[in-house]
Amino acid sequence: MEQQQTQSNTKRLLIENVEIHPATAIFPMMEEAELKELAEDIKKNGLKTPIELAGDGRVIDGRNRIEACKLVNILTIETVNSWLNTEEAIIRYIISLNLHRRHLTESQRADVAARLASGQHGGDRSKASIEALTQEKAAQQLSVSESSLQRAKYVQTHGVPELQDAVKKGEVKVAAAAVVASAPPEEQMDLLTQGKEAVKAKAKEIRTKIAKPATDTTDKGRQPEKQSRKQHEKLLKKILQIYETLPEEFRKRVVKELAEKSPVVEWLRSPNKAGKSAELSEAT
Question: Class of 1-103 per CATH?
Answer without folding.
Answer: alpha beta
